[in-house]
Protein 1
Amino acid sequence: MANSCDDLPDECWEHIFNRFDHHSHLESLSLSSKKFLTIINGLRTHFTILNPTIFIHGNLSKLFHRFTHIKSIDVSSFRGNLDRVILEIAKSDLKVETLNVSKNNRLPLEGLKVLGSNMKSLRVLNCANLSKFCDIELFTIANSMLWLEELDISYPRNNLGSGFEMRRLNVAELGVTNCGIELLSLKLRDLRKINISGNPFLTNHSLVALSTNCVFLKEIEFLHCPFITHFGIEFVVRNSPNLCSVSVDGIQIPSPMYMNGIDFTFARGLSSVDIHESVISDELLHSLAKAGIPLRRFTLAYCSNFTFFGILSILSTYQSLEYLAFIDVGFLTDKHMSDLCRYLCTLITIKLKLCPKLTDSTFFTLAKNCPFLKDIDMERANLGGGDGTADIVKNSRIMSLNLAYNSNLSDECLRKLASICPNVELLDVSSCLGITEKGVAEFLKGDSKIRHLHINDCRGIKNIGTGFELPKLEVLRAARSGIDDEGLAIIGNRCCRLLNFDLEGCGGVTKVGLKEISTNCKILREINLNGCVNLSTVFVDWMVFSKPSLRKLAPPRLSLITESQRELFLRHGCLVCDGYSSKRYVQE
Amino acid sequence: MSSSLEKNMLILRSSDGEEFIVPEVVAVMSKAIKNMVEDECASNTIPVPNVDANILAMVIEFCKKHDESEAEAASDLKTFDSEFVNRGQEALYDLITAANFRDVKELLDALCQNVAEMIKGKSVHHIRIQFLGYQLFEILTSNFIWNIWCDRDFD
């Protein structure tokens, strides 16, 4: 009997289609039948608008008619007429809840007003990192989008110009001021989450206004605001009954006025505390420990003037932490970590970046003592520098390992790590100069679960070792690694489901190897060949026309490709663009 | 008949009339049956329409295993799941329909994941033949309208 899609009710197909982690998997499905197309159109909730989107579709209303359930729109990478896009969104019948306009130049104020009056469903607005964001923009948002619950206005790139120009402007034209925040706090009564980091003119006054007027405030982040002091922090902590997450930096304790640190006792719901770039003291950590708050997430990054005993008092008090990050805590040793481990039974994520005294024995202790651990980040630590005597216990829950910049990491050490974590899905060993393909191959043996493999800057890695197929591997980032044609042949043979391949700056790559990849990796979507000096530009033509699955390609030298060629490629479905930087992006 | 049963057993009757005696803890893994038991309309035999004996037996097997091995290692269960869902397409469809209708979440998740894995990376032709029942000659001879652009996203 022939199968047909009517054998299953729509509801079941929806269940199935919802299991895909990326909408690219739905592409051929929605082309294969009308019924599937209808189901899939209804499932799409997020949409990213890029320049090619406009180039190909002309306008957006067609798309908005098609995907009627879009809840979230991202225009952060769009470089074009933002005004028109915002107006089209405002005039659509969608019920958009999340809009991301970050990283753009400046906001179209008229468009925002229309958006505010038409789209009453909007709850989350991200305006981070705009090249101009001052009080006037903030006023427009405050006056037209009264229902906002989350707002991000962090790190505007307001150009202050020369001193002469600056003198002619008042402060409201240079950036966001207290006045703007006060108006915002009076208008947006439902505000739950706000990020005001990187707005240098804001003072404690802003925090007082936000904390007094927005009673539902749950999360607040104010890094890099030099005029905000612990008075402001203490006020927020005392006055916002719903506060559950706070991120601060630049605290100077002890200061003459606040010898005792900050009293956290009033923050009954505070579950997440991030302290960055501060001079703190053990007293502050002790007072946090004494406060009896339901702490789940704790971060100490780039802080100084505290000792192991401060950390110990926090961790021994709050034994149900799920997320712990110590960044640049230079004094932490393996011994310290093995003392702390007994308090970390519920931990899911741990980040121990820039802690140069921590070796593999810390890793072994964590794997042994934290049964729920999923995510270990030990970037720039000293893995491979331990004596390797600790007992090794398998931990099948660990899924993500970031071990980048561990220059002492060896193949032998990787072998041990692979035997501890059989279910790793993401492995990042970028810039570990001491490892070769033998070490990485340990993670790719047998029934490997690896989906993301990052080996950027590993010159010692020439291939990924021979073995069985790796149907799970989807992303392989091997920029500036030692991969050559021989390596590509092996990768082509083993990684049939590869989606995203980064080969930036791999001098050993020629068209011989890439043909292997092109034939064997049937569903490859993105490839970066930026700076592959032994590839001719003609090869780009061949690649685009012979691989219909390809959506994004960074050519060896973009300057050699004309605008009309790029348009032609785009009409073939492939965006030929700049090599996206595969240098390590800033991760949370 | 129910009087002769132990207290915490239930009888499920498939669409073709076959009866299965199942411990209550196993049967209530189906939300639909759980609701019936809670509303006390399950004093006697519970009819399971739309699901034939063959499929019902499989569903019960799955639920039993999941009930037993709650304490067991998760990896064992995973191997069982992957073997369990490894069936022909027709049986899979019937199982999915049954799991959806009776609201057995674990089973539905495992089955849908399996079908999704089957679809992943397949071409349009492949999907049409395997999942939509097209014959090869239909694909080769007909003029499908290719609305390619609609689905070309670059993110």
Protein 2
Amino acid sequence: MAQQSGRAERPAPSGADILRGLALPVGFLLLAGAFWFSPRAVNIPTGTAAAVDPAALVAGPRRVGLTDPAQILVEGRMENCNACHQIFASARGGSERLSYHTDIRLDHGLNDRCVNCHDADNRELLTLRDGATVPYAQTPVLCAQCHGTVYRDWQNGTHGKTLGSWITGSAAQRRLSCNECHDPHAPRYPAYEPLPAPRTLRMGEPAARPHTDPHAGGPLQRWRTHPPQAHNPEAHDTGGTP
Amino acid sequence: MSRYLTFLWRCFRLSFVGDARYYAWMFVLTVFVLLGVNAYCKQLVQGLGTTGMTDQVSWGFYIANFTFLVGMAAAAVMLVIPVYVYRNRELHDLVIFGELFAVAAIVMAMAFVTVDLGRPDRFHHLLLRFNFPTSMLTWDVLVLNGYLLLNLHICGYLIYCAYCRRQPGRLFYVPFVFIAIFWAISIHTVTAFLYSGLGGRPFWNSAVVAPRFLASAFAAGPAFLILTLAVLKHFSVYRVPAAAFLTLRNIVTVALTINMFLLGSEAFTEFYTDSAHGASAKYLFLGLHGHNGLVPWIWSAIVLNCIAMVLLYLPVSREPRILQAACVLLIVGIWIEKGMGMIVPAFVPTPLGEIVEYLPTLNESLVTAGIWAGGLLLYTILVRVTIPVLSGRLTHDQPFDIATVDRPATAAAAPEH
Amino acid sequence: MTRLPIVGGGAAPPPGDPELTRRSFLRTGAAAVGGMAALAAALSPLRQLALDELPNLDEFLRKHYKEMTPAEMEATLERIRGKVEERYRVRPHLRDLKAMDGVEFGYALNLSRCIGCRKCVHACVAENNQSRSPEIQYIRVIEMPRGTLDVERGNHHYDRPTVPDASHFYLPVQCHQCANPPCVKVCPVEATWQEPDGVTVIDYDWCIGCRYCEAACPYWARRFNFTTPRLPADQLNPNMSYLSNRPREKGVMEKCHFCLHRTREGRMPACVEICPTGARKFGNLLDPHSEVSHILRTKRVFVLKEEVGTQPRFFYYFDERYPNSLDPEAAAIARRLREEEGDAYGCLPGDGGPRRDFVAQAEPAWWTEDRA
């Protein structure tokens, strides 16, 4: 394009000139319109935490153990043990089938006789190996006879449950007794239904079970795929002990 | 002072002077910048949940780009060394383009860190309680800002002296140039130390991270400069000597070779040892427990880098088109390998063994594109302004209109350095 | 020579020609106005910012926690109480509890007793006002196969009808309040630090949300608020402390703090209190009579990822065989040996006679049946 010199005739704007001049403003205004009418918010898949029954989150003893005076529910009324046991002759051997207390499930391993723990003469007391009796409030002493290591740990707080305070000897500190967690007749701790698994932001769908064998490549893998045989050297494939 | 303000005003005016192609380029960049601003506003309102990041993968696209750009900024020094250390006069003017690029790259890197912050309104807390020297992030803040100031000073001083048609005083820029050489190495080393000092992330906890960063930076940065110079050669009358391309090509070739070697070294250590330390490397290269989101990416990056490396070794890459193609390939390859291929795998699996994969969201990508466009916009303006000054058309004693005319430099105009 | 045209094409005007200058001015003006309009429209989502999200001058000028005078702290607490009351309609009992003298908190977890019920996870959430949407939980329970501590083999998302599963054990992980914490080391603004009683705390009003600490933690213990935390008002726990469970905002970190609003008053953390089997033990490491001290003296404790050098204050140990003493594969092996060897099973050569062996009993425990 030739250089204009001085005040020469001004060229009238051509159609192409006008279009070029309008390109920028129109472009920007279109953009402004796009911003104005586009959605204000980005959709974030936050999800919601699964609801948990607040009753499941109440801290406290799992069960209420019998304490002194020992009482159970008989036909709608709380009665002392001896109210019946001083009248009726009840099993003394300890292995007979019970006609009452049929709700009790006895699954205590080797300890399969009622009178191992319950005093044969006075059902409101518990009996020790040497014949001495203890009240129900001292149940741990009874358990300690066979479960000495657990009792040792329970005494210093490493076994069992402490509620209330971590300050040693504080009045708020409460140690739970053996039978506040364990049913003395079937002491193995029950299974629980687990509370919901995590569902965090954008975590994707987890596999219901890990799709690879979790033991694969692990230290115990060999033991699981080649379990040990009986003591018969000919049975070993490799000739060595596993 | 008034001359300086006039200079700035003229630079501002000059950045709006250009032909239709220039306007089209600037308009497209502006559109992306505005898209990025819009996306960032949504992120400010809703939080970083608009990105694809999670507690499991808590650093993603933003930090990946930050890492890549710090490397690019450091690579400006790759022009400084041949010119100032080896006294290659022919490439002298190109140092400025490299350092202007460093300025743009650092600004972009700092923008990426800012958009990654959960509470950018608390930026000033860095000034009030600065956990220096314990936290490597504080080192990073210092070196990045220092590098920006260093380059702004060097470029600003040289350009302003050219504008004033006066000889730049050697004391005012030569020491800074030499400082910049070491400082450039340090910015990327500090950034690498951010990652390699974390014992809880075995993928990063490796001595090879810092050398790898430097090698990949010194490959990608000069490659970008080659592309810039090619653009300048095509769209302006600025003289770019062929020696510039060849010197840069040699630098890129060597750096890329070292980068591939270090990558191989990393891969050998992780895969031959075959311990739990290599879980993240396994995820990246082979997939882990059925999750293989990054596998196609890293292998594409490796293929791109290998093709680029082969091309660069062949004499045919002296041809401009081949050289530019190789540069594009390796920039993309290194961007993948150093960005997503470096940051994300360290988070998969988590330190507790959980696998959650990461993908940037649209909003996150728009913010990223906006920052890249903003940086390119800044660099375009800086170069647009620098060429007339260096070729003697924009000086304090000539009217502004002369700067708008495209003609080769006159002998009297270009000051001797 | 070519001339680069100015603004939108057309010849460059001779200097001082008003007609073309006006035309080019109009073009420039129109483009500039269009640009401003586009910028304003781009910024329009900012209108959604709630007014109370913008920091007021007091918040902006506040000092770091360690530099605040008691009066400044009280003013800050009052401001937070007001905010909580406004949002949740509940006046919180918020105070700034300081560490007790002579106390260093320690935690011990009996992996033989943990049954994986996740009550600790949800009790913690109920106690500490975490976001429910998105879900934030400080404790993660991992179901691990027996024989390994490699957490990569674990399963975070187990969902069985009942727990424990006999061939797994359960490994709950939360912040270990390490004595050499990498998170404290990397925080650029000192928003997280170790208190004298060992708890690593976060000042939610100081954190800038860079998430470097989250990258640095080897136990994945730290959480970030990617959005504004959402918590139903009826689930708010009003018993709060400044450094523990007051409601957080978006863009800041949070994590387990050993329930210091409870423990600094002598109470147990929520996770310890709720654990049904007593697997979790908590107390003062400096008190030789505390439960944790007993455990550290008498049990074979270990820590996770010891090689990283963090010196956690969270110790794990196994003691009894339960719950995996009846691992079905182990029981199957014992049963088969019993069948093959008969009365000689379990006896040394020349021994008196057979011994009873509970592992080899005919029936496996009633909960080991696979109910999948």
Protein 3
Amino acid sequence: MNAEKELTGKIFDIQGFSLQDGPGIRTTIFFKGCPLRCPWCHSPESQAFKSQLSFLAAKCVGTESCADACVKACPENAVEYGELKDGVKPGEKKQLIHVNREKCTECWKCADACYPKALSKCGTDYTLDEVVKIALRDKMFYEDTGGVTLSGGEVLSQPEFALELLKRLKEEGINTAVDTTGFVKWEVIESILPYTDLFLYDLKNMNSELHKAVIGVPCELILENAKKIAAAGGKLQIRIPFIPMFNDSEENLRLTGQFVKELGDAVTMIQLLPYHNLGSVKYTRIMDNPKIFEATPPSDKKVQWAKEILESYGIKVGIH
Amino acid sequence: MYEFSPVTERIQVLREKIRNRVIPVDSVRAVAITESYKRNDNKIPMIKRAYALKDVLEAMPLQVEEHELMVGSLGAEFCGSSIYPEWDGESWIPHYVEDGIYKKGEDGFYHTPKDDVGPLVFTEQTYRDLAGIKEFWKDHRATVPIREWQPQGFELFQALRMSSYTVEKDAITSPVGHLTPGHEKIIKVGYKALRDQAQNWIDEHEGDLMADNFSKNVFYSAVVIVCDAVTEYIKRYAMVCKDEAGKTVNEKRRNELLKMADSLEWISENPARNFWEACQAAVLYQLVLQLEAGYPALSFGRFDQYTWPFLKKDLKAGSITREDAQEIVDSVFLKLHSLYRVFPPIVTASTGVNTYYHTTIGGVDPETGEDASNPITFMVLESLGRLKLHDPTISLRVNSKTPDKIWECALATSKLVGGLPLFQNDDVIIPSLQKEVGFELKDARDYSLIGCQEIVGSGNDFPAPNGYNPPHCSIHYGTVLAMALNDGKNPVNGVQSPIHTGFLYEMNSIEDVKEAFEKIARYGLHWLVSMNNYTEYLSQWIISHPLLSISMEGCMESGKDIVQGGCKYNSFGGTATGLATIVDSLSAIKYMCFDNKKCTTRELYDALMANWEGYEPLRQQILNEVPHYGNGDPEVDRFMTWVQELYVRLCSECSSARSKKYKSGLYGATDHINQGYRTWATPDGRKFGEPIADAASPAQGRDRNGPAAIFKSACCFDHHKYMNGMALNIRMHPSVMSNDEGTAKLRDVTKNYFKNGGLEVQYNVIDSATLKEAQKNPEEYKDLVVRIAGFSAYFVDLNTDQQNDIISRHENMI
């Protein structure tokens, strides 16, 4: 028991009333850390496995208002004065701060001192009990279809915590879904299969070379695991992030459609997730000079076109 | 997705005319009632009121507008409006002219400033007439006796400013109103049968008026006068339609006008024969009641229920098509929207143009308890959605048997017109009306909504949900808290109440704080209800309502006016808006001072007294670290349970001569903003002047975990106790409803909330970017409708503070 109590997972967000991470009303638990590096990622804070210091300028009240709380708290002098921003009243200026990430040792003292929580630690170690308690908060709204979704980052990069959490949720009678890249050893997936009601499973590109060139890993393992899940009786909801100039060709859509069709009844539906750039603002919170993916979000017409191609394989397709 | 039907051309034309109208306000009613009061000055009040209505109706010029299917205007012209000197005196209009605010244009008419909400236009004669009646009404208004004498101790209560109730201005600014008249009875019985019933009683008792028969005689005599007056008035409308037909070349329209004339002639005395007549009879009754007294929050009742039998018959007979019926329903709601009583800009700036003709649809059959939604239920939602009509407010009654199709249509409507409809839960309300207010089952099943949110019986209940002084129905609980932490003294003006609670820095536990709060709250509420009872006492002999009483079950039977307790059901009540501010404050005191010792009670007290000046780090810590209400956190929610139970208990201590039941409510329209202006800084980090939380919702921006968490928190107290109604506002980003799946999920979460005891919810589907854009370019966003706790308004019609308040509310993004 003691050992189990000490098991923790690194979580960067827990979101109630999620409507689009699986069926029904769900609570989504976001695991931190991912082996993939998708350039369009809208949750950059999900990528690193370690906790990160996040600075949200919009929340900063200015160092005059907090009497330099963070600047004084930092033992490394890593919190410096940054830009001057317009205050609420005309002519009023707010002195914002800037984190010198070279000097920062991630001791979180500035985050503890920051009253408005403009500085915060992104990524918290949760025990199973803590996560389960939060997941149960909305239980009355889950009903038959809703439940809890584990998402990320890559959930299965923290396999032990994910497995134990899923077991606990099933003990509570809660429907479970796991949002995964599929880029993980089969044994890990096999272990969680009995406790996972649905996989939200990404298929980003059928061309392995392109997959590797852009995301950093090939796609064979991902495709192989999908087949194994289907063969083992698991349920899959396929998710396709629809990215301009990467996977929006007719050829790729048709290959994907054919592959999904062959997975048979295991697939509940395909979710087409058109690229959007709302995530770009998140990068600067955790790093200086980020490299931001720039593309024009696909038109509704183009998304509809893609939907129809996929539907021609006899699969239900939703756009989210 | 639910598909709305197209709008016919004539309705589109009328809609544009009404939406873009400048309201012609005139002095016809004001002059007529002044002359009538002068002539009848020495008659007993009830007879005087009956003659006043007769004289007003006779004086009103009538007209039928091109394209119109429903007749009626509250003023001398199409979309016109009247002045009510028996409440308003000469009104604000002459003062605004004299102060140069309303200026005469090149057209020779007076105009309101460009940015006024609900623009008015009036003539030189109207100005002179209104200025001319000033002297008479100075001493003839209903409010005069209260201004002249008050009970012992009142002066101190007033000075404390724990509520907006003062006698310096007007204690009675309108009749009580706030009820659902018996439209169904008027439609099904007609004025002649009601008149005959009264006349027969008088004949039978001539010269033999023993016991309380004398007062009945007075009541029935007034009934005869008002029924005759209304019959004559409607007959004149028939003449107008006939005359107009004579001048009309288009044959189709000519026949239509002749048909309208025939029907108007018929319903001036008799029960309606078909759907059109039922609708017009209901609209005209609404209109004559408004002309009689300008009732606030006069509801239009369960329109889809009382008109459906007529439409069903017409459809069966093949005398009408569904398209025709939709056009009639569209006409009804456009007409209702235009029967608008004008208010001074200080009122409209915060409420927008609102008639408060709250209309209820859906729900169950009173006899069988089965779901009673019908084609008209859809038609009303269609009118709202297609015409983008934010007013009248529509409540949809839902229950476990409500068809999915209704949900779908209603949520699609929400998306088009802000927070309409409001969703009201039959499964909580019906049993509670029986238990809490003593309704019979069939009457409980027939409930309707009025005003902002209040739950009332239909045509059988004098519910006075905001007491007898409608604008002053709430104690400011934020002020109660500020006083409780300051030895019973209001920090805003330094006035000391008779209750000494000690100071925050003398309190040793959260229990001490709660005890202090309870003492001050009791003092305040007891005083407020006492003053309500003064107004009730006064109303019973000077402000009777015979025209309203004829349709209310119990009054004709007992020969008693509604103000004398003639209705089958009698109750009254009030509301406590924004208790989340109290809860967050208690949570802050406990977390900061007692549990975690992050500051001392002395420091917090000093910060409060300084209105947080110089204490920004402390304030930020409270805003960001302290657990707040609305996040499904049981620790904080426990304070909500406590304060709600306290409020309900305090209400149960109140009663009046007419009613033992003082109902509890959690709503307040925009009152949270007004209360905020007068409420000192609170421990939750709120500064002096900022809004308190609104209605039953979490404090603005303090809920961070989405609607499921809000619902969870909201279920921490028993909604069955709030038979005065409650409002839970939830802002929704439009993307929640961007596809069928999202809409279905929203429906399911709402159903689930209701299954868990939720009473009411309304969704504001809007995003902040849109709102900010709308602030900058109001012209482009004329159609943007938002709902503020209990009523909806055009966003661009609100003042900047309210616009900002809406924007600052946390968006429940997916």
